[in-house]
Queue: 4 jobs
Job 1
Amino acid sequence: MPLRTMWGASRPRVGFGVADAGILLGLAGLVYVGVRAAIGAPNVVPGPAISLQPQWLPYYTLLSVGRIVAAYLISLLFALAYGYGAAHNPTAALVLLPLLDVLQSVPILSFLPVAVLSLTAVLPEGVAVELASILLIVTSQAWNMAFSTYQSFTTVPRDLLEAAENYQFHPWLRFKLVELPFAARPLIWNSMLSWAGAWFFLMAAETFSLGTRDFRLPGLGSYLQTAAQAGNMQAVFQGLAALVLTIVILDQIIWRPAITWAQRFRLEAIGEEETTGSWLYDLLRRSWLVEQFGRHVGRPASEALDRLLTAGYHRPTATLRPSTPPRRWTRIVTGVLLGAGIAYGVVLAAQLLAQVSLQEWLGVLAGVGATLLRVAIALAVGLLWTVPSGVAIGTNPRVASVAQPAAQVTAAIPATAIFPIFVVALVAQPGGLNVAAILLMLLGTQWYILFNVIAGVASIPMDLYYTAEMLRLGPRLRWTRLTLPAIFPYLVTGLITASGGAWNASIVAEYVVVAGTTYAVTGVGALIAESSVAGNYPLLLASTLTLIVTVAAINWLVWRPLYRYAAEAFRME
């Protein structure tokens, strides 16, 4: 069977060795770092004050990483449940998929008033603001992962599903042994993109204000935001150095081992010529301690969970029918309650929108047009370099071994952290903040296109390359007859996600505060940011709804037809 279990095959170890000593030393180092950070951490500063002293950076970094980890775990559970439900229930998919399109288009700052005001109404302010920050980070992570799991669960090969059916697998075992392993590789890649999105919006998630109230949490994002607003470039570079170091460490201890581990789930009969390696993964595989933990703790716990979830399961047969018809009144009551809730929300929204003047509506429409132009320019510029670069990385293993890890690390560096530098440098130049806004959109969204192009090139079967070689196709014919048709579906997917990311990035690209000076350009992102800071909820709602309608219209009129065309004209069969 090509797909292995999560624990894999067990290989007995001879005993405690060098790998185990390295693991113990690494754990000791992590404990030491955590203890030192805790000892050196100052008391919680009252109010929104954030210190720019470098000794605070380890403490702030741990807080930010902790929030992103908590948000990622929530996003992962949401993505698995949402994708599984949409993939296995066609009726639910009719609602879940359009809802996911809408949620993806809602800017992160538009969730802010709902999250903060709702939580502060029922919880202490400190706890409420912390939870609100985590939920805001979730909104920058969850949607991309949900799309990935849905796509994976709906494209599991038929022969694997038929094998699970023939062996009468419980739904949990089918999910654990077939569906989840098949989804592991794309889910890990999308997890890296989701973490990059979390770093991108970290400053917005840790430093926000509503009206006259300033909610600010200690963390690396608030440190960078405070340094940028104060014009303290030394503190900005110190924060960036801490951020880059954190990203590199996380890449080495989490993502590289995860990518290497996920290679066990590939379906190819012939393995890849060159596979991704990880020194930490190799160390763990050679460890006697890890092997003993898997044998005596991990595997028994997994088997106990399997027994618990599959207890009393009897596979239904085709002759079994429910003895009584389903109760329709439960559906009716549920529909009535749901409709009443929606109607109540519509009434409240209409009351707020009635407070928006005609002049403000015209400003919203003008802002949408200006932001649409910037999004189009950013996508066009991104296409110019990501397509040839992605093809080069995907077709040349030697280039990929260097460029692919560099792209992963670079994608995780939040452009919002260095954006104030661009603003200061470009504000006096022709184009000014308009050029800086387009640049920030590009920095935040181009990676979606690049990684999808790489995935598209990697999916091209080797026999097509051999055929092109035998036919002696020149470079131009290879591009037009092989490469571009093969990557076109992936390219459309990358453009869809990049477009959504660009619209969200407009909030931080069109409105920025540097050294106490506010820089803003005409755009719907600037309107959302300004109305959020001022506590102008009617204008915030009007801007957000207009943005959602615009993005949804573009998806239906542009991206969906392109995706259907790609699926029909360039399908590999």
Note: The two ends are 22 Å apart (CA to CA).
Job 2
Amino acid sequence: MLEWALAYIARGWAVFPVHGIVDGRCTCRHGVACSRPGKHPRNSNGRTGATLDAALVRRWWKTWPSANIGIATGNESGLLVLDQDDQYALDAVEIPHTIESVTGRGGRHVLFSYPEDGARYITGTNIVAQGVDSRADGGYIVAPPSMHISGRRYQWEDSSLPDETDLASAPQWWLDAIRRADGDGACAVPSWVPDGELPENIQDMLEAIPADDYMAWRDVGLALNYTDPVNGLAWWDWWSRRSKKYGEIEVKQQWRAMTRKGHAVARPLTIDSIRQLAEKHGYTDPGLEHGAEVAAVFLASEQQRIAEQLAVAPAARAIVPLPDLLPRSGLIADIVAYILSSSIRPQPELAVAAATAYVGALAGRKYRTETDLRTNLYLVGIAESGAGKDHARKCVQKIAHASDTTSFLGGERIASGPGLITALRRNPSQLFMLDEFGFLLSAMTSARADAHKRDLMATLMGLYTSASVVYRGTEYADQEKRERVELVQPNACIYGTSTPAQFYAALTSMQGVDGSLARLLVVHASETRPARQRPSIDKPPGALVDAVRSLAARNAPPSGNLVGLGGTTVDTTDPQIVKMDPAIYDAWELLDEAMLDQAHDSATKTIYSRIAENAARLALVYAVSRDIDQPRIDAEAFSWGRELAIWAANSLVVQVARFVSDNEVESNHKRVASMVREAGDDGIGKNTLTRRCTFLRRKELDDVLAMLIQASLIVEVKGAVGPKGGRPTTVYKTLDPQIGSR
């Protein structure tokens, strides 16, 4: 590939690397799910970075030997290209003999010399007929011998090889069809303005996003307008012309409207919104795949920005849903699909939590990260009663029975710490699915908790940090009757479920300070009561059962547990090391530092301090879920683990700030503030609020409201008309109505 690329630049054709095809999948992080396999740029600035510099070309293909070759078309390479799909023909028109290649799909690229007439020529689709495209200014082609997703290579047509054929002049009918009219910016790439705020790879990102979808078109325009109001219009117009729905007047009118109306202050659409859209359609920034210098860029995410906002006013924020919670592929995705398809009221968040915890148990003591983190996870699913909390647990039990892996499931009740240790002696890697987890947490942490329950909390904390070593249990006075138990690399996983009221009533600020909260990944259901669906009652699919059985049986390590007086434990387990890609490792280290900056008190600091660790554990389980033989923590695995870990932490910080209190007075303040916030933009009337606050006397409610107003958490509007009309009354609202409505 390097020799061909060097040969092209010797002809004056500017080249750049394009993602290749290896093992039948695109080399980008989306793999088999990529929407443009083997066709989108691999370098950070894509087609705009095309070069004639041989040294740079050598560095590119030394870094990516399997990269396909992109040739920039247009004036800089002196090329016009007629791109014809295989199912369409232009037999009725004259096409002179010139250099021509056969694409991987069987179509053809017909190359012509770029006229020296001072005109500019457009890149576009369906120029003169269906399936006949133009590659000129701002465009590119994938050149031989690049690999196509079909398994065939692009190749030069035998009778028109580059070394044996001269470039012909384009026929006049073709020039007329693709000549850009004076003053018309038809698909001409806007020039890059170094002083602007748009990144240099903006073209690559835009090219990955279909311009025909209205919502995407509007969001891209808003993001460009917000990020760079001076140069953004040229880019939006250029990109909009890729759609058949394009209208120049509409683009300009909408741009003026965006400028006039402004943007949402709380959550504006930014350049990161464009990046996320592009990534959904297969784009990946190659710079994120190598090199520590780009690791910081990889950290940028919506959930991290929310964490920054929470450092200012956590109680005033709402839980923002995580948009890409569902894994794209792998065992977790298959388990989630089974849970959701068989559910009357599907709860995706709870399905993901249960599936992840189950895979973590199956993978226990078999895999580890380079820093020796394991797959032990404590996940808690929060949903209201009647919202389908128990369904995910039932599905996991069905899968376990069908795959003969019930030894990986512990009891549904844990009476004490010694009881938990006894269970792990049978199998040191187990998933404990615990309903009413809020009540259990209260029993373990309350001031009146009995010794057994307090010991259970201490045992859970100890097991969490002992997954990579030998856990040495309690020393008892009578060793002959009650032996000290030693467990080699125990892997205890938890999937608990609870209602919000049960769970947060069990907490005090001390759980944040002592670290017990930080070990929990608390996942909130996005819907209070999801819409009903007609469920599938089929048994777990055979392929799913086989995959679970394979993971459970893979490299089953010796137990290594020697129990008794004077007994020594020989640690014979040797889990497989799952490595992180270099840039991902750097980004993971930076994540730890970045999240600590968001802490606003000791409890929040403890919660955010565990995000990097939780992200790595989740990414490890995700990587194993996709490939049990050769798992690797790449950008996709890390992104999923990072976003889920930050989202869970953000949600926990919001809810703790709203509901967790250490005394009755603080509890009353938070309950009233929550009622006002949940009323949304219209606020809540004084009479309505009084009826809901039956736990307070009238004077007490007035004192609470006065304190909240003084603290600038709510505002009082007198003489307002209530949300349902009627006589003027006193209404209470949050200071930022948008926060309440979210």
Note: The longest strand covers residues 491-498.
Job 3
Amino acid sequence: MAVERALYSFDRLYTYAVPYELEDAVGAGKRVLVPFGRGTRKIAGMVFEVKTSEYNPVITKKISEVLDDQAHMNAEMLELATWLKENTFCTYYNAVRCILPPVLRAVTGGNPLKDKTEKVVRLAVECETDDIPANSPLYKPPYKFTPKQKSVMEALENHSASVKELCYLCGVTPSVVSTLIKKGIVEEFVQPVVLETEPEVLPQREASDIVLTEEQSAAFDALVALSRSGEPKCALLHGITGSGKTSVFIKLVGEVLQSGKTALILVPEISLTPQAIAIFRSFFGGHAAVVHSGLSMSARTSEYKRIRDGLAPIVIGTRSAVFAPLDNIGLIVIDEEGEHTYKSERSPRYHVRDLAKQRCFKHNALLLLASATPSMDSYRKAQTGKYTLLQLNRRYGGNALPDVHIVDMKMEHASGNTGNFSRALLSALRDNLDKGEQSLLLLNRRGYNTFINCVACGDVAKCPHCGIALTLHRTNAGGILSCHYCGHLKQYADKCGQCGSRFVRHTGTGTQRIEDELQSLLPQAKILRMDADTTMTKGAYQRGFGSFGNREYDIMVGTQMIAKGLDFPAVTLVGVLLIDNSLYAGDYIGYERTFSLITQVVGRSGRGDKKGRAFLQTFTPEHYVLNLAARQDYPGFYTEEAAIRQTLLFPPFCDIVIIEVCGVIEKSVAYAAAAVIEILDRLLKELPKPIPVRALGPVKSGVGNVNGRFRYRVVVKCRNSAALRGVISRCIAASGNDKRFEHCGVNGWFEG
């Protein structure tokens, strides 16, 4: 069985004896409690296999307790856990924990059905914001509120709020709220975190009502043939934005359900699930379930049970939905398959596409990858015949692609316009307002200013835990400085924290500043901002996108969450600001990410009955990535990018493994990272047959210090194989018994 808390260096499947009284209760896929290590403390375990054998005196430890009446992991899920262990360099129990629904991950202490909670505060007494009333039992004259405390009380006059939300809205730190709690002015309580999941109610329709174009019909017929083959198949549906890929999905799901099988539809972001579940429930009613991390614990548990019991043969969700307990799978769709959100950033570091392949192999199902901007790896496999390539080259309904204008911001600056809006874009926004049409503005940075430094002494406002520049967020009470990596908050004082100088420079632009500037330039416009700051409360995605879809706003400003998968027929104008930040990010996927972002957001324009247009503002208007994205020419981009990557040996022409060392003492981390190279070289030389690899580093990670932990990495260019994975696994395990890693942790994963 797999046991929790086993370090990677000694992680394996352990054998325990089954006491006579538990013989009927123990079974594969059930959670148990077992003694582990030298002490008698019980820890969680997952039974992988039960064997009948004669008494073995070497096995001295017995299972203490069986936690489940029924198995929560079937044979397929246990195989997936083993696959995760071998391919993502995690422990067995980390793999188990990843697959189990959240309600089953905590096995000791408290009710496992307990909802995820958050701290919420409200006014404890009715009082003016200047003083506590004299008739209040809390009155202690001459107590006065500070301006920060006043802002908190004003925010709480009509409703409660989470501490996190309150700190952001009022521009204060948690200590201000804590002081009010101690004074008895504000009271704190705990409530479940609930994300509203009821989608917009759409009229009921039948999949047979959908009329496909000639292109869509050809793709649908080919997919049906693959689905009926009785073998695991993979297809890539490459269609330009607005070409009607969703209609093909719906028809295909209807076909799969008629054959008695189930379907899994994956989307890249939580923000897209309300629209997706609304569409699918309009065709399939309550047969569609939704799974993502934003649901409350009770909601996820309810959906898990519906899926497990066969009441919901269609599952729609984000990355974690790939583990949905579906039986007899006939179809898995990964929409916008090139998005980075399909890659887990925490152990186990898996990619949804790889797990979906494993499930399709198990069920002889069809895996359908779909996007206007597929990943380089998937498109190469389609080009070489490993996947079936299907194309949708025309927009549904005959709508034309938007006219795209690339604006040279160098010329704007030379003519005296140093603002964030070119004259052409601002004119187009005014024109859209006059016509009553809607506009989207994309800036993939939140906050107000992204860099604060002192002119007098040169000091930069940095996070004390990460060493990263803090981002300024304007609030009613002034502002707060926030670290977007560890979440550290600091009150903004409008002066240098080192020398006290008032000569402080604010540079860098975020969505909040764009919203303010736009409101001053177009005071008559109703503007909606959609980013991580405005969508932190429950139901924010549904309310925001719903109100914009109902045309309650004229302009939506947002980060990448507004760039893909959304359909607003009244949007006829898209503006992309500061795209050079993405283009020159400094990593090998920067061009691919930028091309995808531009192509997707431009594709939001002109999806109704009116022609769309888009403006890309850049200081490098001649760059081939921007020009190809403007034309939505993915094949042209792939040809250019593939030539570069093949020359420099980057994916998809090789695989990359990252071995990362982290710890609180930078010198120790750097020393341990150098030892990784030595261990790796020794293990490679011990192989009976050489493996061609190229090891680079060690180097400091791009963000070398997060929350007080320094990070160094070794990059290994290679070909993924069982022998290579064995070497990497032994290298990571060896660090557990090496004194050079005494104060460090080591982990590894495949990149790309």
Note: The chain has six domains: 2-104, 117-192, 207-397, 403-447+510-645, 459-504, 655-751.
Job 4
Amino acid sequence: MKRTLALLRVALRSNFGLTLVRHRLLVEKRDRWMVPLILLGVAGFVPLVLAYIEFLKFMFDALQPAGQETTVLTLAILAGQLLVLIFGLYYVLSVFYFSRDLEFLVSLPVRPSEVMLSKFAVILVNEYLTTALIVIPAFVVFGLLAKRGPDYWVLAALVFLLLPVIPIALAGLLIVGMMRVVNVSRKKDFFILAGSLVLLAAALLAQFSLARTRDMGEVMSLFTARDGLVQVVGAKFPPCIWASRLLGEGLTVRGLGFLALFGGGSVVLLLLLMGIAERLFYRGLVGLGERAAGRRRLSKADLGARISAGRRPVRAVFGREWRLMNRTPLFLLNGIMSVVLVPVILLLALKAGDASGPLLALRSFGTMDAATEILIAAVFFTVCGTLNGTASSTYSREGRQFWLSKVIPVSPAQQTLGKFLHSYLVAALGTVAGAAVSVVLFRLGAGRLVPAILLSLIGGVFFSALSMTVDLARPLLKWMNPQKAIKQNLNVLIALALEIGLLFVLGYLIKAVRSAGLDGSGLIVAVFALLALLSAASLAFLFRFAEKRYPLIAA
């Protein structure tokens, strides 16, 4: 037990690096300028959280007269667990099989299950941060509005601690089994990527396969049956029913039964994962290091010769970024897949025909005025394209190989342009995916689709340049696994918060301008001009900043 606890402690310290952060801030007095930037980034989430809280209060008030207020908890818990399951697939893959510390851990006198348990703990703690913004507001709103006692808050804390265990364990079982199979092939990268996509598609289809269109009689019956909505919402993932009913029943006989189901299910799946790890974990690791080491890495002379042999510098840097993304399955899954995943989830959810929940409001799209629909569509396309970690991890993804960018005979501004084009291509892909979904779902005509696409594309320039500036200010080059360069990169969180905050600010500006009398095509032209000005300014600043910042980055 002492050996396991020591391994867990080391894994958590290595993952978060709190000792290093404290040393830099308090002893070396470095990076203090990041503190206000982090606070500003966190403040960017405040409008989104406040809007989410108001939505939860609205749902509670609407469902309470029918005795269905527990559905608020079920929806939040289901959203949190599915978020962990779907996005946790490649997170688990990264931490379990691509961490750089594995070559040291496997040589220690520890069992495979102990190594996996330490990795599991790292993922679990990080997923608490992921689910907190979704689950904690729902727990607080329900507890206050329902006037629950102290036992509710104790059970809410317990549910929060157990909430990610089941989805992470399920993802771990799938990944361990997949890696044991694909690792026998010579084309491991391809099969890892293909297997991850298959698992991701299966998780999405499983989520929406049980949903179907219901007539009005069925919908009304859901409000009259005990926990009718809870059953329908949670039928896709029963653990969320156990958790929500545990909170709803409290410390009663029924509540303790649901505690046994939820807690017992979590323990059983975790033990099953540890048992599978004893037999298959190290077998899935065999050959991964040799595969990575077998690739030929370009030396300084080789890379300089290739660039000076006639290839245009910007095109060469763009090609390098493209290969880096494609040759690392975890970068590809985190970056490009995320821009496609949002519109695909929306498409599946609305096509499923579920008449309950916030998606019902989207069905009114198509009955609004032209300017409103164009602006809403443009925001959706922008979210699909830019609110991901591709641009905000541009420099961090290079890791310890960033020294190559410092020595190649290409100016930092030209390198940054090549990197920007790569990030912008990913953003444009998200815009295309969002536009395709809008055409399928809402039959958006060309008169509204084209202006929305143009607004999204010009806005993508601004948001991509902004995200790259954040990462360039303090790139995360020392990471243990590729996943940390994106999912555990503070720069990604700061950029995301800034982008969300700026979208809210832009929304308030548009509302004020419309109130002043500017509307219709004039409003669209004004928004386009503002985004074009912001894009030009942000790009110019990024290029100048790159020239000053590159020599100061310690690779």
Note: The chain is about 75% helix and 0% strand.
